[in-house]
Amino acid sequence: MKRTVLAAIAAIVCLCTLAGCGTMKTQWRETRKLYREYINTDPSIDFSDQGISDKGLQRLAALMMPVDERLLAMLRTLGSQDSAPDPEWAQQLLSANAWLSGIAVVDASGATVGQVPSTPMRPLDYASLLDMADRYKVRKMGARVVSDEMGTVVMIAMPFFKENEWAGLVVVNFDPRNLVRFSPDPNALVVVSTEGLLWAGGAGQGESLAALKWNDILKGEVQGDIRSGGGEYVWQARYLGQLELVYLTDAREVRAAKPEPKKEAAPAPAPDKALPSTEPLPQPADLTAP
């Protein structure tokens, strides 16, 4: 009796397995198809995509990238410091970014706790940075652009904390001239900000470009074209703390230039001729062998 029951159960299991086998195979094929089409798709390269085709944007990218890359690298290091740094850290940051003019540690009341170099070439007032306490309490950077008879200086502040409470600022400052020199053609590049002119370039249009209503322009765009003083400028913006930097260059010349003729492909090299073999020739069989 027990054997009969076991045999019956085994037969039922086999029937269920056979009945569901086709359905499972169909579902598995559909699952694999879905996976290959939408998740693990075969990679492909579109060789017809030439990237940025606008000659003006290509020119701007070539001018600004060596400048902006150094600025971003410094900001990443500065942004990782959320406690009051020691003099060795400040000196290392200054050495790694020789275009910086100085670094200061300022407490929440505005008192300078320490600075590198110990005697700065230019005294700075950090009061305008301290006005942005609401940003610092949520761990955001602040920045100011200051211009006077000594020139223009950019100050960038990163808040530091004690027991999770905002306690002060690490402030780096630099002369824009020291940073813009990394561009392959600084005279062709203009740098403005929502707080004023940083670098006028060599065409004499910096003041007029800085006077544009950038706060309104940047409400809906981060890149575009603008006409000013007879020039046709292509521009790109990026944030620096709460303000925005704008890189510009006159694109008239590069856009008007005729494209270079395509170079004809070099003829394919002739196939290598087979060299004579150096292997010894096989010996004929010994017909006298038994």
TrEMBL record:
Which residues constitute the signal peptide according to the record?
Answer: 1-19
Q: What's in the keyword line of the UniProt record? A: Signal
- Entry-linked PROSITE patterns: PROKAR_LIPOPROTEIN
Residues of the region (Disordered) are 256-290
Question: What spans are recorded as compositionally biased (Basic and acidic residues)?
Answer: 256-265
What this protein is called in its record is Lipoprotein
